[in-house]
Amino acid sequence: MRERILNAARRKPVDTTPIWIMRQAGRYLPEYRQLRERHSMEEICRAPELTVEATLQPLRRFDLDAAILFSDLLVPLWGMGVSFDLVEGRGPVLQKALTPAELAVLPPLDLGGVEFTFHAIRLLRRELDRPLIGFTGGPFTFASYLIEGKPSRDYPRTRAFLHTYPREWEGLMKRLADNLALYLKGQIEAGVQMVQIFDSWVGVLSPQDFRERVKPYLNAQLEQVGNGVPRIYFSTASAHLFPEFVTLPVEVMGVDWRVSLTQAKGIFDNTYALQGNLDPTLLLGHEEDLLAKASTIVGEGRMLVGHIFNLGHGILPATPPERVARLVDWVHAQGARG
Amino acid sequence: MRERILNAARRKPVDTTPIWIMRQAGRYLPEYRQLRERHSMEEICRAPELTVEATLQPLRRFDLDAAILFSDLLVPLWGMGVSFDLVEGRGPVLQKALTPAELAVLPPLDLGGVEFTFHAIRLLRRELDRPLIGFTGGPFTFASYLIEGKPSRDYPRTRAFLHTYPREWEGLMKRLADNLALYLKGQIEAGVQMVQIFDSWVGVLSPQDFRERVKPYLNAQLEQVGNGVPRIYFSTASAHLFPEFVTLPVEVMGVDWRVSLTQAKGIFDNTYALQGNLDPTLLLGHEEDLLAKASTIVGEGRMLVGHIFNLGHGILPATPPERVARLVDWVHAQGARG
User: Fold this and answer.
1) ipTM more than 0.90?
2) Taking the CB of residue A330, how many other CB atoms lie within 10 A of it?
3) What is the rounded CA–CA span in Å between residue B293 and residue B263?
4) Is B263's CB within 8 Å of A285's CB?
5) B286 → chain A, closest CA residue
6) Could A282 and B154 be called an inter-chain contact, meaning their C-beta atoms sit closer than 8 Å?
7) Structure pTM?
């Protein structure tokens, strides 16, 4: 198995910069759009053979250093008795908003309710000659979906909830931390070699709210998962929280395009390998602009003890697949640090 | 006229911390909702007597240190031949997306097309015994509305545009800077005593993109406006850009709730008076939590050479008006720095 990405995550030497791409299995691929003509998102998530197909599609085209399990972030809610619809182009929408009292007593995760995910991972392990990344969200991200009930720009209901219902918030976050750790441990047991914890919008919080109302539960989740496989923590628009992130028990810290890897290194020093951080919109423009920026990022990455090349956020549906192929090959052609 | 807020903006001594509230004229007020039952947003913006009524409503209830002109951010587009609809609960939506070529040659602002705004300001000046704040957006904010055509979370089309069409971007930003400066100068001439430049979502950019693709045009706008009245620059989720903001020609820097005033002072030192930065969701919760946080903010503000109390972003429609009254009176009761 190609171990380049695992070595970078463990801050060991690599022959060249490893690369994978957030949402690499997705709507920018014609073969994925064909799959979606015949099956809903929910069907693809629930049927292991369809999950395998969607996961493998980008690996057939691009020399990526890892596959990432195809799934929806909120899938584990199906194992917690919460119903939601995956609305195309809009994201998940809860069928019924939960009250603060209901949120405080969310049931434990029923692993049987998400067995299809573990089944797909076992199938994928047989097919793949490179690492498979598993994933879930952090407790804040799940709490915010449950409280808002629909996609939001800066999560005012969630911020109001954590200020107004501190006890219910604590109950919710504790349960989510346990459930999401259990879900990730199930993925690791089934065979993933790395995990990413998505907390994309945690940057809406102040450092104080993050420290007091989120970090204890995120820590609990990460500690329960353990360091058997490398853990990546991902968020966006969160540079003001980096000083709080310094002590998180993970191996890799995701960085979005809003700050440079060098700026991030200024705060994280060599505590973590860093992952990132190309602005996904550069894949829509001119190739020379794309490669100029990629060159800057690879150069900055060589000053780190570990760097995994990725976008700063998910790939956009309008991206031409041939641009992705060019980027992946170009990054690999740069070789090891000079 | 009560000059407290102007003195704070000019970093002169004040008897107590001045306060105003972003979106203080708006949907949380029953009398505003009544007005909106009879008139559309567009009607209120276009009819000077209705603008005056909406602007004055919060001042009849609360002892605010300034009024802010009631208007929509995009009103000056009507003076640039661009049509859009104000869609309730969703924001402005363009009637037709403009091509890059059309954007590059946006027409100069026709001041006659926004004369109703200046008329409303002249009427308000006769009624008010305290400063009136005028406002508009920065060129990035206007460019992003024109390019996206509808509200967006992280403005991928705008980021793609500025990377892909640098020449068209430059043409658009130059014209917007000139037009928006002209619009603000018209407001100042008509009688506003202070202006706020809203660049709420500029934080989606990297420091490099901000420095190279936004700052020159923002500077041009601000310099054309001049320092005859204090200028406030407002953005959110932009702490990673603060080092770039240090040299902007403004008197007051807005700070959202994501960073503390003390953290902001660490970067801005005493270059600017600071405005902010209560999380608006605290107005929805318990009064003791609200006042505890307000106390922290007033205390931090006393360590600055100039502080204007405000929320970190607009007031939420669900806010109880009596909570606002309590906050305003409580802030004033704290007196001058000890």
Assistant:
1) yes
2) 16
3) 16
4) no
5) A164
6) no
7) 0.95
Nearest CA in chain B to A287: B164
| Cβ-defined contact of B240 to A258 (cutoff 8 Å) | yes
Pair B71, B117: CB distance under 8 Å: yes
| Residue range A28-71, pLDDT digits in tens | 999 999 999 999 999 999 999 999 999 999 999 999 999 999 99
User: Residue B200's closest CA among A281, A210, A206, A154?
Assistant: A154
Q: Determine the residue among B150, B159, B283 to mutate to test chain A binding: the one whose Cβ has the most chain A Cβ atoms within 10 Å.
A: B159
Which of B206, B259, B311 should we substitute to test contact with A (largest number of A Cβ atoms within 10 Å)? Answer: B206
A222 close contact with B: CB closer than 8 A? no
Per-residue pLDDT reduced to its tens digit, B179-221:
999 999 999 999 999 999 999 999 999 999 999 999 999 999 9
CATH number of the domain that residue B187 is part of: 3.20.20.210
Reading the block at residue A335, the tokens are 């070789």
Our CA-based measurement puts residue A245 at a distance from the nearest CA of chain B, in whole angstroms, of 15
Q: Domain residues for A181?
A: 4-334
Are A279 and A293 in contact, with CB atoms under 8 Å apart?
yes
Say whether pLDDT at B87 is over 80.
no
Helix (H) or strand (E) holding B308: strand B307-311
Q: Whose structure tokens read 């089944």?
A: A119
Count contacts between A and B (CB, < 8 Å): 88
Looking at the DSSP assignment, which residues form a beta bridge with residue B277?
Answer: B310
C-alpha angle A256/A135/B156, rounded to 5°? 35
- Least Cα distance to B313 among B6, B26, B23 occurs for B23
Q: Do B65 and B19 contact (CB within 8 A), yes or no?
A: yes
For residue A294, pLDDT over 60 is answered with: yes
Q: Residue B206: which of A205, A258, A286 has the nearest Cβ? A: A258
- Does position A338 have pLDDT exceeding 60, yes or no? no
Q: Which residue of A has its CA nearest to B236?
A: A204
Total structural domains in chain A? 1
Write out the DSSP string of A13-57.
Answer: --SS--B--TT-SSTTSHHHHHHHHHS-HHHHHH-HHHHHHHHHH
Per the structure block, which two tokens stand in for A16? 């060249």
* Coil vs helix vs strand at B301: helix
All residues of chain A having their beta carbon less than 8 Å from the beta carbon of residue B159 are 279, 281
Nearest by Cα to A75 from A97, A44, A52: A44
Mutation for A interface: B27, B157, B158, B163, most A CBs within 10 A:
B163
The Cα of B209 is separated from the nearest Cα of chain A by a number of Å equal to 9
